[in-house]
Amino acid sequence: MAAGRGEFFRSLLEGLERKPAQPAPGRQQPYRGGGNSGFGGEQSVQCKRKTGGKRSKKRPKAVAPSAVNFSGNDRRLPSEILVKILSYLDASSLFCISHVSKLFHQLANNEVMWHKIYMSDFGSQTWRPKSADDVALKVDPVEVKDQSVGHWKKLYFRTIAGQELNKWRRQLRYINPYTGLPRHTEWVLRYLNVSWELTVCDFQGHENTLPQSRAYFSESSVIVCWSGGGFPQYHQISNIQLHGVRREMPTSPEFRKPDWRSLILKLDMRPHTGRFIGKDRLIRLIRLPPGFIVGIWRGQNSVAFIMASLHFHKLVEKSLLGSPVCPYSEPVDLPPADNSDPEFGLHGYALHFVLHNTGTEIMSGYFRQLSFRTVQVKSRLLELRVISRTNVSQHRSLSGSIKLPWKTDTLEGSVENCCIMMLTLLDEFQKPFWCVSSPVYITMARKTQSFDYSGEHFLIEYREPEGQVKMTLIWLKEQKQFFLISLSVYVPVFKVNKHFSTEY
Q: 3-state secondary structure string, 7-27?
């Protein structure tokens, strides 16, 4: 298709640039235009007169209003002929040629032309009453022109977009009852050939866009890594932009559609200094909210790699439906108010909680029937006690050691006492209430948290404006593993009031 369009435009241009044949002596060269009168109403073609054996000077020919001038006096095509030529193009070619000039923009937005394109592609899918079948097939061009400007063009692309959305939205309807998320998120992302690009900008305004090096999928999140060089010095980074990119499969080697880029996140580095979370013999890790990890070579200030942990909640929409400069805006879907329940919004929660790294699941759990206590409302921070320190039956072991593997093009390693925390808190309607996927790290507890175990006590804490998470672990030296003895999730009161339209 692309080669055919290119050959067509090439032959058209050669025909326009070809010099017209010289007229025979004594014959008048025919005028090519929309008529024989100019703008002022005078005759545009003057008869030849012989005066003393010499030709009289011709008056310059006036261009007819409906003619198109192609940078030459004799290279004119009427607009009607151009519209006829454009009518043989498909929708994508017509859209592209509308950006060539103002004239082609006007001609390529012809309502009758776009109506024919729409009816040829989607006319059979449009419902019509049986009694009006014969009438509907006969469309008056005057009625088409009476529509708002660009109506059929907008309707065509809206229908195309709707069909494209329905292909993957149909797969996202099936919800996992434990995670509250679509079951086939990973399949949809792979099927649509979605990847993620990182744009790093320094304080001099230089930008460097890096395609993803690796992606590690888990049950409810994905860890994306970028490496291979091209990063500025860490202290010179001014902002980081994360885009979802859908790569179209080329229909031919000569024709490739540009990739669509959807802005997911733009992180300004000026107010964020980053937090040191761990190191090994080669690198040290810096955590940047809300889920970035920057690996810096030890003894230097150069960046080795960047990781981002992305939660599956609305990840497909964020990666596809945003624009290159504006992220996807999630629609507000508030639960119905229940004035009969005095503790509406404080009970019936469920939590899906996972600790993992790029290749191992360290701990996973699903907890139901969680509730806030009414007495906590005054503190403006509500607590969900998921695992109680005093209830030994709720304590659970962690499989393997807590570490975060990393890899570049040439080297690899792992940082101890770091991992990724994935949290999905569901409300009583099994809708996502708070979703987190972020790196966390272990610190030594200042005091003993429990006397039921003999071992060193450690803490894992996570904080952001939307909520907090606190975990208490004990290192069992004989078993050589961690034991989770406490897990609490804290949510601010304003978040509950906003979600449930309450006034606690």
A: HHHHHHHHHHHCCCCCCCCCC
The 10s digit of each residue's pLDDT in 133-174 is 444 444 454 444 456 677 888 888 777 766 667 778 888 889
Q: How many helices (H) and strands (E) does the chain have?
A: 11, 25
Owner of token pair 């580095």? 269
Contact 262, 244 (CB under 8 A): yes
Give the whole-angstrom CA distance, residue 413 versus residue 285.
12
Which two tokens mark 206? 């230089």
Cβ–Cβ < 8 Å for 174, 182 = yes
The residue behind tokens 């200094």 is 273
Nearest to 114 by CA among 99, 93, 136: 93
Helix, strand, or coil here: 127? coil
Positive or negative torsion for Cα 385, 388, 393, 397: positive
Strand positions, DSSP E, 345-446? 349-356, 361-370, 381-387, 396-397, 403-407, 412-416, 418-426, 432-444
Give Cα separations from 320 to 125, 190, 259, 351 (angstroms).
26, 13, 11, 28
Q: What single-letter DSSP state applies at residue 336?
A: P
DSSP string, 33-98: SS-SB-TTSSBSSPPP-EETTEEPPPPPPPPPTTEEE-SSTT-EEEHHHHHHHHTTS-HHHHHHHT
Q: Are 56 and 49 in contact (CB under 8 A)?
A: yes
Two tokens, residue 485: 């003895």
| Strand-pair partners of 224 | 215, 308
8-state DSSP, 232: P
pLDDT tens sequence across 305-332: 999 999 999 999 999 988 888 999 888 8
Sign of CA dihedral 259, 260, 264, 269: positive
pTM assigned to the model: 0.70
The residue count for the chain? 504
